[in-house]
Amino acid sequence: MLPEWKQIRSKKIMPVYLIIGTEDYIINETKQLLIDNILEGEEVEFNYANLDLEEMPIEVVIQEAESMPFFGDKRLVMANNPLFLTTEKSKNKVEHDTAKLEAYLNEPVDYSVLCFVARVEKLDERKKLTKLLKKTATVIEAKRPNENELKKWIEAKLSKNNMQMSQEAITRLVELTSGQLTTAMNELQKLMLYCFDSKEITIQDVESLVVRSLEQNIFLLLDKMIAMDISGALRIYYDLLKQKEEPIKILALISSQFRLLNQLKLLEQQGYSQQQAATKLKVHPFRVKLASKQAKNFTELQLNQALKRLAEIDLEMKTGFGDKEQKLEWFLFELQDNRQKRV
Description:
Layout (H helix, E strand, L loop, with lengths): L2 H7 L6 E6 L2 H15 L4 H5 E5 L5 H9 L8 E6 L17 H9 L5 E7 L9 H9 L1 E5 L4 H14 L3 E2 L1 H10 L4 H14 L5 E2 L1 H7 L4 H13 L3 H13 L4 H23 L4 H8 L3 H11 L4 H19 L5 H19 L1
Parallel strand pairs: 1-4, 1-5, 2-3, 3-4, 6-7
């Protein structure tokens, strides 16, 4: 749990907040926490404003914040998308009177809470207004957690709900949700409901209940190929076809995974750490960690051959040459054959 969340729950409410980052779970939970701990019942209808700074100027936000609360002690104003504080270009040409925001930040009213929600990695630190906002606001970082941090999020949620879960099961949940906090917490909520009576979530529960994304199934398919389990790989492929997944979409994801393996192998040869590689490739560190293990099972030549063959299949599919489903099936057999030659 974030320390700022503890403060909010203990009713230590600050006049100005800044939520910055791209992790939806943290953003949404923080917004809901503020609503639950500032407003009561019907007060939400009268004293809550959720505004988009891409649609209206900052003056409207300040006006809302300076309006007296109605049938309550405080107002809560959410100001979403303050792109004028970033280097990003606004889609809509909304003019903002930033002097009014500056004046408000220097002397915020005591009967309103103003919360800025910036779904970006960072603000433009060169701007005077950005510096003032970060100085006067309580900043809550909605950044993507690493693997260990994600496990702590899961453990905290389990503890809060008096549920038990082994480290093995937690690790598997992290793997099956590709290290994504929002996805992991949604799946954990489902697991807790299913195991409510027993109060214990087993690895079998995780395996049977967690929904695998198409990307996760592609990763598992390659894992089967690495383990020389062609029948297991084909089962996953056939299951995807039964789920009405398009062969060309499956092909695109297989190609994307092989490109990642190839890029990782090249970067590792240049001395890049996994974290450095993740930053350079703009890929989630957990995905890099898992892909790095897969890359060790292929030679550079095998990866290049696979990418060349996948490009050929892509062209054949797009030009209507041959059976799409069969082409990918044969690719799996070819890959198996190349892996056996290496062994």
